[in-house]
Amino acid sequence: MASVYLFNTSFGLKINPDQVVQEMINFMKADTRRDYKITIGTDSEKAPDKTADFVTAIVIHRVGNGGRYFWRRIDEVEKYHTLRDRIMQEVLISLDVAKVFLSSIKKFDVPHFDFEIHIDVGENGATKIMIQELVGMIRANNFEAKTKPYSYAASKVADRHV
Q1: Domain ranges of the chain
Q2: What angle do CA 161, 75, 37 make, to 5 degrees?
Q3: 83 class by beta-carbon count within 10 Å (0-12 exposed, 13-18 middle, 19+ buried)
Q4: Confidence at 1, pLDDT banded by 50, 70, 90
Q5: What digits encode the pLDDT tens for the residues 68-116?
Q6: What pLDDT shows up at residue 4?
Q7: CB-based burial of residue 41 (10 Å sphere; 0-12 exposed, 13-18 middle, 19+ buried)?
Q8: Selection from 155, 69, 61, 42 nearest residue 115 by Cα
Q9: What are phi and psi of 62, to 5 degrees?
């Protein structure tokens, strides 16, 4: 997985994207009888100067038995004048990470897993008018999309580190 950004573990360690993939594979292989779901989501926070911090989380859930997550922060110098622009950038970042991550993990023999991209938008609030467009973007890239209240990778995990 090629990237200039290091990911943080939930234990505070910084690891490169290839190490993230290896950690996730090791986690899945530790209990191959379980079902796994991998989710990617991005959340952001606008700074007073209209730039934004974006946090992307990769979550691996051992269904019914816990999980692990990895996250990275990108400080954007570009200005985001509207909420729409910032939410759109969140989705574009998640799509980029998903494509790179999946192309990397598919090189290995891994147990089956479900995959979703989580979007920090929901039926309540200012972002509700964007749901169809953003879900459409993700589905156009052949990924499953989840919105609030089911988008925990973005709205809970990434949000925790924004």
Answers
A1: 7-161
A2: 45
A3: middle
A4: very low
A5: 999 999 988 889 999 999 999 999 999 999 999 999 999 999 999 999 9
A6: 58
A7: buried
A8: 61
A9: -85, 100
Structure token pair of residue 117: 């991209």
Cα 89 from Cα 54, distance rounded (Å): 9
* pTM for the structure as a whole: 0.94
In angstroms, what CA-CA distances link 69 with 11, 59, 81? Answer: 10, 4, 31
CA nearest neighbour of 87 among 132, 139, 141? 132
Paired with 59 in beta bridges are 39, 69
- Residues 6+ away with beta carbon under 8 Å from 74: 5, 53, 54, 55, 56, 93
Quote the DSSP letter at residue 62: E
Cβ(118)–Cβ(153) below 8 Å: yes
